Amino acid sequence: MKQFRARLIFISILFGLGSLAIIARLFTIQVLESKRYVERSKDQTQQRLILTANRGNILDRNSLKLATSIETDYSLKSQMVGIKLSNEKKPVKRVYRLGEIGGSILGYIGADGYGLGGAEFLFDNYLRGEDGWIILQKDGRNHKYRKIGLPVKEPRKGYDVVLTIDSKIQKIVHAALKKTVTALNAKGGMCIVMDPNTGKVFAMANEPSFDPNYASRYPLNQRKNKCISYVYEPGSTFKLVTAAAALQEQYFKEDDLLYGDNGVFRIYDQMIRDHSPFGYLTFSKALSYSSNVCFAKIASEIGNKTMFDYIRDFGFGTKTGIDLPGEEIGIVHPVRSWSGRTLVTVAIGQEISSTLLQMVLPFAAVANGGILINPRICEKVIDNKGNIVDSAECKMVRRVLSEQVAARLRIMLRDVVDNGTGKNARIEGISVAGKTGTSQKPDSGTYSKTRNWSSFIGFAPVENPLLLCGVVIDEPAGGEMGGAVAAPVFRDIITQIISHPDLEFAQKILQKKSVPVPHENRYQNLPVLCGKTRNEAKAQLDSMDIDYEFLGNGNRIVFHLPTDGYFVGKNEKLILYTDTQITDDSRQTRMPDCVGKDLRDAINIISIGGFKPFVIGCGTVKKQMPAEGTVVRSAEICTLYCSFES
Amino acid sequence: MNNRMARMDIGLFVAVLVLLGFGIVFVYSSSFAVAQQRFGGSDFFLARQTIRALLAIISFMVFINVDYHIWGRLSNLFYVASIILLVIVLFLPEINGARRWISIGQFSFQVSDFARMALIMVLARNCERAGDEIKNWNVLSKILLKAGIVCGLILLEPNFSTALILALIGLMMLFLSGARFMHLATLAVSTIPVMLILVLKTPYRKARITGFLNIISEQSNLGYQAFQSLIGLGNGGIFGVGLGKGEQKFFYLPEPHTDFMISILGEETGFIGLLIIISIYAFIIFRGMKISLNAPDRMGQLMSFGFTSVIAMYLLFHTAVGTGLVPTTGIPLPFLSYGGMSLIFMMSSVGILLNISSQADVSAKVLQSIRSERLIKV
């Protein structure tokens, strides 16, 4: 019994020691090393899940969705504790409703959800929003749960970016450009439509384009927005800059005569040629007929320094500042590196290159009264409650032309379309101004005969420009001229825009023109005015409520436009030409006879006689003022009235 | 009946009831996730544990009222029955890689649970019969053989840990009944190479050992379960994360409601909670030892020691596994772990233990008189 007791106590002590060992072990784990295990537990039971914020939409100016994200809905509120979270992370799916239409403006996003081009790239910070996160409970099978009490930060949806782009215009532009590029088997094309007053871009199209829904299927080069990144030689469209410099600096007036050298102008070893030989042209007609020779001469008058200043002031060689990524600055050589012939080649748009966007801005300046504007594509950025977060202002870069010069250039550009190389841009019922351009592509040191950029840049209506459109067709088949290729695209686009019932332009143009009046009141038969004195004509016209203007300093009316028997529109101006009074007879000459002669010959004859011709119309001379044989002072202006057949 | 209940060790009984109550709470806390996943209802184990606990208390009621001497007389019968069952189970289909269970209708039980009771009874009876002759190797070896057959058959199931526990309990019973220390020590030492071979020849046992050695490095997959158990304990800290709020039961621990109950308890009630629970066990074991000391005869002494040491050994093994002190093996925590028939067997042995206590829990004189009375009667 004694032995049993001893042995039982011995065993009990063993059990006791075992228990103490266990307790010591528990103390180590639970008290001394607890912190480490708590962390390990957290590591394995909690997982931070990033909740990707839904990307904001890109809208057009009518709030139509151009780019939207398929909402990755975590529906945090509806998730109950302990229910498995099924969709942990979905790749961001971006939908571009218009497909390849406008792809180059919108850009695209990469697999990581970051914008990689166009508006998607530039406004990425706004669009992306703020990712949220959630701490999920994870069990041993790696299933994840939401658990009450664990912190959550809900994602903030990205802001919506409203563009100045109009889907309808974009569609029109895209289709028109695509049609022409396909029909002419051209390499490509670009087109910009914008508001010349505010710089808001309504449309910007590239051909070939790309569909941002499947961006990765297109070569990188095709995903670029060529309107702002493709550099080309603007050619004759650039003559506007030269003409603007000449007018603004008062080297020339519209009716100053220039001799076309019959189409060839030699400077150093290079020939400047015209597409057809010209004799004498007025400054204005030189633009209308796009005479390279005359513009070479104009540039020679202007000189390097002034020419360069205007090129620079019109924004060449610098970014336009449009809110799109990837803009190129073009190539403008500094004056010090100009060769002897650079001045004249630059004047006709060679040895200089720019983007289409840079090239349309001088036209916008002419259209809006002389201000170089900052083009833009973003209207505003709005948050999820509709508050405006950021908005783009209409910004002017600088005044480059005076109001008057801009107005005179508008009339000159209108003549390009009405009578010159841009006839294909004429649109029924609306006045159009613009300039054609055909620039041969550089080809191993010289210029290619067959490969060119054909362009047209213009605006309408001239009286109150609302739309500015620039078109470039890259390598049209057969080396077609800008007037033949690009001008019809312009006409096509503008016609569709102004006749589109859902767009505001038709309404605006109509309002500006006049309050519609009954047809019988709209036009008035002209009375017989020739031979009457100023005062008689004044009295008569005032009574008929016809607007009029006198030209000439004489007292007797010799001719008027429109001529007898024609109607004059309610808002048209009747121009009355008077005979010319001679005040200084120190040097008198007889006026040569020009009536019945070809305009070009007439200009020659008049010039040789020491007179300055003022041409109205074109074709054959019908009448001259002063009349043949009249004794006049030399250097007097001789007005040539021509038939209006070209 | 009331007589017995009045004279038994009430403290021990209350302690066991407290543990049973804890068991129901923690079985639910630890099993609802597993139950939801496996059976589609979080209260699957809770409901069963509650029913088993009630059945266990009923069987306790039965056993406390049966004089333990009957078990001595029936012990050889039970022993033979358990041998037959242990052989039968070897021919039944495997469940989780071992043949341990026999199912009769809805009920299934581990044969080793029954064999354990039978072995303790038969050893107690045989040692009492042997008396001082136990010091004789020939006598001792016959008794050892009986224990060896049971342990060997359990080892064949295979169930190494249970076999080891039963062998240790058997050796302690023989040691208590007066066997020579040298005999037992020689035997124990001679089994070490056998055990080593058994461990090294069996890939899963070897893997568990390797995993156990790698717990510290935390990298091994084999140490995963043990390390998860440590995370549970450590995460609980001093005061625990609170009832039901543990993380480890969510499929980090393989059998949270049975083999890793300590980890769940430690995580939810902390070091303090485990101290209390271990103290309750210590109290039960202490009382069990006291019953053994005060038992009216050698068989009662040995039987009560046997049943008490089962509780102690299971507690030590379970906590040692849970704290990573020994390789992972499936030993439940008595009264607290979810268990079907094993809980009923365990409460039955508590019934026998308290029956012994009811016969001893009187003064020595009364004890003496009862003994003489009975002797006279016999």
In terms of topology, how is this protein built?
The complex is a heterodimer of chains A (646) and B (378).
Chain A: H1 2-32, H2 34-45, E1 46-51, E2 58-59, E3 65-69, E4 94-96, H3 103-106, H4 118-122, H5 124-128, E5 132-138, E6 144-145, E7 152-153, E8 160-163, H6 167-183, E9 188-194, E10 201-207, H7 226-229, H8 239-248, E11 257-259, E12 264-267, E13 270-273, E14 280-282, H9 283-288, H10 292-302, H11 304-313, H12 342-347, H13 356-368, E15 371-373, E16 378-382, E17 388-391, E18 396-399, H14 403-419, E19 433-443, E20 446-460, E21 467-474, H15 482-498, H16 505-513, H17 519-522, E22 523-525, H18 534-544, E23 547-551, E24 557-561, E25 567-569, E26 573-578, E27 588-590, H19 599-608, E28 612-616, E29 621-625, E30 631-633, E31 637-642
Helix pairs in contact in A: 6-15, 8-10, 8-11, 8-14, 13-14
Chain B: H1 2-7, H2 10-39, H3 44-64, H4 69-89, E1 101-104, E2 107-110, H5 111-130, H6 137-156, H7 160-176, H8 181-201, H9 203-213, H10 224-236, H11 261-294, H12 298-322, H13 341-360, H14 364-377
Antiparallel strand pairs in B: 1-2
Mean pLDDT of chain B: 87
Shape of chain A: elongated
Order of helices and strands of chain B: HHHHEEHHHHHHHHHH
N-to-C terminal Cα separation of chain A, in Å?
A: 144 Å
Total E-strand runs of chain B: 2
Mean pLDDT of chain A: 82
Measured distance between first and last alpha carbons of chain B: 22 Å
- The Rg value of chain A, from CA coordinates, equals 37 Å
**CATH architecture classification name of the largest domain in chain A:** 3-Layer(aba) Sandwich
Strand numbers in spatial order across the main sheet of chain A: 4-3-2-8-16-17
Question: In percent, how much strand structure appears in the residues of chain B?
Answer: under 5%
CATH hierarchy, class of the largest domain in chain A = Alpha Beta
Please outline the major beta sheet of chain B: 2 strands, antiparallel
Helicity range of the residues of chain A? 25-40%
Class from helix and strand fractions of chain A: alpha+beta
**Domain module tally of chain B:** 1
